[in-house]
């Protein structure tokens, strides 16, 4: 296993995503890596309604995204992450996570498995499956829901 210097984890504020944050924080602590916690948001209801994916929490506006990031930061601190940064991006969760990974030259992306086994996930794709296909770095899909 290679060393990880930058780890990105996505959160939408849900209990499931906080389990992914926990796992990423433990890894960041073990590698003394920087943990970048990212959150996507839609700028308005029209943009949000265009998504076909219903397996994610819809976050309208960056204020809600920033609040999610603050909660996730506090959660990550409890599990060993010391150097924590946050990033918020408009757009779909997949698009936002890919931008955050690229902007930070991350070596690892951590996401929860929510949606991967749903009917919608099988037909249209899911956030974890889509980021695993698109990412240029290692991807860890954490088992956060059954």
Please characterize this protein's 3D structure.
The structure is a single chain. The chain has 146 residues and is α/β, with parallel strands linked by helices. The chain has helices at 15-31, 45-49, 62-78, 93-104, 119-124, 127-134, and strands at 6-10, 34-41, 83-90, 108-112, 138-142. The chain has a 5-stranded parallel β-sheet, sandwiched between helices. The longest helix is centred in the first third of the chain and has 17 residues, at 15-31. It is globular, with a radius of gyration of 14 Å. The chain starts with 5 loop residues before the first strand and ends with a strand. 42% of the residues are buried. The model is unreliable at 115-125 (pLDDT under 50). This is Universal stress protein.
Q: Whole-number radius of gyration?
A: 14 Å
Share in β-strands: 15-25%
| Low-pLDDT segments | 115-125
Mean pLDDT: 84
Helical stretch tally: 6
Major sheet summary line? 5 strands, parallel
Give the ordered list of helices and strands: EHEHHEHEHHE
Strand order of the largest sheet: 3-2-1-4-5
Report the span from N to C terminus: 27 Å
Question: Based on DSSP secondary structure assignment, what is the total number of beta strands?
Answer: 5
Helix content: 40-55%
Query: Which class best fits the helix and strand makeup?
Result: alpha/beta
Global morphology: globular
Family: Belongs to the universal stress protein A family.
Pfam families: Usp
Organism: Corynebacterium massiliense DSM 45435
InterPro entries: Rossmann-like_a/b/a_fold, Universal_stress_UspA, UspA
